[in-house]
Amino acid sequence: MYGKNRNIQHRIDKAGRIIFESALPNSKKFSLVFSWESEDYGIDGQMQVFKDGLHEGEFLKAQLKSKDEAKYINNGQILSYSLDLDSAFFLIKKVQDPTVLIIVDNKSKRVFWFPIQTSVEAREVLEKKLVETLAENPSITLHIDVNNNLLSRTRYQGLYSYLKEAKIKLSQEALLNVRVDKTLSAGIKHVNAIEKQMYELEGFDWVFRKGSLITPGTVFSIETSDGKKVDYLPSKKYKPELAPKITLRTKFSTRTKEDREQFEAFRKAVQDGIGSVNLDSANIDTFKVTVGSQVLDNNKVNDKVSINISPSKTRRIITLDNGTDELEHTAEIWAEDNTFIISSIVGQSLSIRLSSKLGDMKGKFSIGVNPELMTNASQQLRLLDFIRNTKQLTISFIDAEGFKRRLFAGELDASSIVSDNQYNFAKALAEIEQKTGIPVPFPLPDDLTREDINNVFWVHRILTQGKITQKITLNFSLQNKPPEQVEKGKYMSMTQSPPEIYLFRKPYVMSGFTQTIAGKITEMEMPKGSDKPTYKIQMEEAEISIKRIDI
Fold first, then answer.
1. Cα–Cα nearest to 283, from 328, 315, 251, 235
2. Disulfide engineering: 133 pairs with which of 26, 138, 410, 526, CB 3.0-4.6 Å?
3. What is the bridge-based pairing of β-strands 220-223 and 229-234?
């Protein structure tokens, strides 16, 4: 048969467009109206924002990608999508308007969005690929949270928030580019040479502080006369004898209450090893700071000095990356006794602590879970999975510019932290939740017994296999007129809906399920003195099955 075949991708794209448009929010309170571009040069169209029926004057451009069947990882929680390098470079580096990447899974009819312009991960992967790739058709892999979908019309809030964030990010980048261009035109090489001469100290790396938070790992800081704050971190050439030394001779008046309070504050800070005091020319006799043989500061009579005695702790949101998964975590970071420390804030289900000597690339690292702070079995399994899959852990933080900065990277022996028995127990609980859709009560009891553990694996086995055969003893009562006679040697079948199952000595009600027990009665007792026929029977090979009731 002769004729022109229809392009398969055209069919996929058309189906994706229909699904995408049908998923857009369209209510009186909030709606997104999409208009397609007549020419597709990397942008398929744009969404216009309406709130309470009024146009907000906001536009979000979109690039639409459709797949007949998408690829999911991490138990279906992450959509893995391969984006060609040309599109990635265009969307991340070139587009100057707020733009979102839309992925449509035609099979499941789900529409996902990815924050392509604000994703630090996507930007880092792109920059790495631009340097490394030699492939004929290079691409980057994006990991998209399945919660970023428009399947429910109430899930537009995240997409709308991204529009706001992308506008801010693009404005910051535009402003930064203008500043950099002006600096370059004025002669950036000359400026760099002056800065190097001014700030470079033996044994230290230095950075200009971004924002108000001290750069993690800072040993000491300097504020210049033009208001710049310079943080000093130990370099590979750092030695203890290069630590800054302060020679300070002070004088205080005790005539007034304010004078006495200032003196007491200064003395307490020196004694306790922590505090902050402002001194001026009336208090300073001599003041000198040296690093090695270099004089860092030598104050004159009219100078003022702000002395901050640490350890001062900085609270940060950090990321833990094991190479395949990434977690956000809240930690405190500080330096103490020539040691750089990262430690978890209390009240989190994961706990970490790192201590590393300043100037030393190695350190002591520990990581674990806090079972009493777990909220569900799936959370517990994810954390244990994260630890078990970790061979090398990277700890980073997001700086004021929105870029990821590495704090620490080191190897981890996960086998010494999570045992096989601990992991298999957590996995069984998570799969029970997944099969039934009913949460397992958390936190788990502190006094777990062998019977508790065996019961969990019994419930898991019957749910995953659907049917098991084992010896069983039953106690039950029948109505006055039973439909059939209960006798030893006969076969019997009983159905319970919902099943009578216990986890951790409490009923685990599996709504929507039914349990059937069938088998040959091998032993039987019939206690006397009961109004209703009461039995205690035993089946050597009872067939027990659980199934979901069709609704």
1. 251
2. 138
3. antiparallel
Q: What are the structure tokens assigned to 290, written together?
A: 């040296």
The pTM for the full model equals: 0.43
Could you tell me where the DSSP H helices lie in 79-205? 85-89, 120-132, 157-199
pLDDT at 101: 93
Q: Are 271 and 230 in contact (CB under 8 A)?
A: no
Which amino acid makes up residue 181?
Answer: D
Residue ranges in the chain whose pLDDT is less than 50: 1-4, 176, 178-197, 300-302, 551
- What b/e sequence results for 4-28 when a residue is b if at least 16 CB atoms lie within 10 Å of its CB, and e otherwise? eeeeeeeebbebbbebbeebbbeee
CB atoms within 10 A of CB 132: 9
Read off the tokens for 212.
Answer: 């108000």
Going by DSSP bridges, is the β-strand pair 502-503/404-411 parallel, antiparallel, or unpaired?
unpaired
pLDDT in tens, 158-185: 788 788 778 877 766 665 454 434 433 3
What DSSP element (H or E) covers 131? helix 120-132
Which pLDDT does position 222 carry in this prediction? 73
521-547 pLDDT, tens digit each: 999 887 665 566 788 889 999 999 998
Task: Return the pLDDT at 178.
Answer: 45
Contact 245, 238 (CB under 8 A): no
Beta-bridge mates of residue 352: 367
Instruction: Give the whole-angstrom CA distance, residue 96 versus residue 173.
Output: 10
- pLDDT value of residue 296: 63
Strand order in the sheet with 229-234: 204-208, 229-234, 220-223
CA distance 460 to 345: 35
User: Taking a C-beta distance cutoff of 8 angstroms, is the pair 97, 15 a contact?
Assistant: no
Cβ partners under 8 Å of residue 82, min gap 6: 139, 140, 141, 142
Tokens 């790192």 -> residue: 354
CA 227 to mean position of chain CA atoms: 35
- Residue 515 has which token pair? 């349990």
